[in-house]
UniProtKB/TrEMBL annotation:
Name the UniProt record assigns to this protein: Glutathione peroxidase
Superkingdom of source: Bacteria
InterPro entries for the chain: Glutathione_peroxidase (IPR000889), GPX_AS (IPR029759), GPX_CS (IPR029760), Thioredoxin-like_sf (IPR036249), Thioredoxin_domain (IPR013766)
Domain Thioredoxin: 1-159
Transmembrane residue ranges: none
GO molecular function: peroxidase activity
GO biological process: cellular response to oxidative stress
Assigned protein family: Belongs to the glutathione peroxidase family.
Name of a matching Pfam family: GSHPx
Entry annotation: catalytic residues: 35
Keywords for the protein's UniProt record, in alphabetical order: Oxidoreductase, Peroxidase
Length: 160
């Protein structure tokens, strides 16, 4: 099983198969608009602009599970991202990343790349997962890590 086996909802509620992203390096991140890490949208967009022509895609999944820091509708979230950070990478429908209603994709990501001390739960907004061109989960990156600090790993995977 790889991430290509999952179907997610875009911000209009339509099904999107992650198989559409085959042969690309992906950064999958749970996001929030009212979080201290929200400015990471800017760095994520910078990474996307720098590497999209080489095969990088960022996939953002808004989540309201951490102190209700993503209260908006899917439309409001997308508008916020575009207007405030110039986001042009895909922003999907709001999901849960932990608990019994957790999106299957994030259950899978958490299993494949546990956090510190083997913890599987997502600990906060802007937890990032790096996926190779074959759909394999390579690494979990902590919320506080600046997305630009992932450049070396992204370049390595793009050149593999």
């Amino acid at each position: 099983m790889t991430i290509y086996d999952f179907v997610v909802k875009n911000n209009k509620g339509e099904d999107v198969s992650l198989s559409e992203y085959k042969d690309q390096v992906l950064v999958i991140v749970n996001t929030a608009s009212k979080c201290g890490f929200t400015p990471q949208y800017k760095e994520l967009q910078n990474l996307y602009e720098q590497y999209k022509s080489k095969g990088l895609t960022i996939l953002a999944f808004p989540c309201n599970q951490f102190m209700k820091q993503e209260p908006g509708s899917n439309e409001e979230i997308l508008s916020f991202c575009e207007l405030n950070y110039g986001v042009s990478f895909p922003v999907f429908a709001k999901i849960d990343v932990n608990g019994e209603n957790a999106d299957p994709l994030f259950k899978y990501l958490s299993e494949k790349a546990p956090g510190l001390m083997g913890l599987k739960a997502i600990k906060w907004n802007f937890t990032k997962f790096i996926i190779d061109k074959n759909g394999n989960v390579v690494e979990r990156v902590a919320p506080q890590t600046n997305p630009m600090d992932m450049k070396d790993k992204i370049e390595e995977l793009l050149n593999a």
